[in-house]
Amino acid sequence: MYDNLIPTTELEATNALLEQIGEAPVSSLDDLSLDAASAQNTLNRVSREVQAKGWHWNTTFRRLTADGNGEFILPLNTISVDTVNVSQHINVTQRDGKLFDRRPFYNTSVFTEATVEIKLTELLAFTALPECARQYIYIRAARQYQEFNLGAGTISQFSADDEYEARATVLDDELDAGDYNLAEGSKALARFPVGFRRF
């Protein structure tokens, strides 16, 4: 009965954007018309924009091992990176697809450390995203696509309220599944000793 209930596909999301400007849906993402290609480009741009914020579903913690040159090669889809745990004292950034040492007077991609522990945020394919993120991305993209093609004054099928509601759902999912702990994970509270209570 529920066999056809699957998360939103990239094709469905692209067609939702086309619907915003009154264009017919496409049956495939191959050999797209100009409008369909523009819709897909808008969807991809908004997906990168949303994912760049970093969420629990596109952020992982890893231990990297340096290659023979002392360099740490990052995945091609890396959005942002930072060191954590025992490597937190190393100030890094992403540069030319590698980890770059920003510590004063280091300024190099060649490290003396054999391993580093990092927090890595990656850009995921649309189909790898949770459903709440897919919906937020395509609703946001559809509004932008409609405004670009028809003007901001044109009535959109998706209102600002729809976009806010979709974003709220993503934030709810982030709080539910992100396993955040205010007492242990907050820099603001870290300066207070354990057991501190304010009366």
Describe this entry's structure for a reader.
Helix 3 packs antiparallel against helix 4. Helix content is 38%, strand content 15%. The chain has 199 residues and is of the alpha+beta class. The termini are far apart. The protein is elongated, with a radius of gyration of 21 Å. Strand 3 and strand 4 form a beta hairpin. The strands form two sheets. It has a three-stranded antiparallel β-sheet with strand order 1-5-2, with no helix packed on it. The protein has a two-stranded antiparallel ribbon with strand order 3-4. It folds into two domains: 94 residues, no CATH class; 67 residues, no CATH class.
Nutshell version of this structure?
By secondary structure, this protein is an alpha+beta fold.
Give the SSE order as H and E letters: HHEEEEEHHHH
Class inferred from helices and paired strands: alpha+beta
Number-wise, the strands total 5
Beta-strand share of residues: 5-15%
Low-confidence stretches: 186-199
Roughly how much helix do the residues carry, as a percent range? 25-40%
Oligomer description:
single chain
Biggest β-sheet: strands ordered side by side in the sheet: 1-5-2
The N- and C-terminal alpha carbons lie at a distance of: 56 Å
Q: What is the count of helical runs?
A: 6
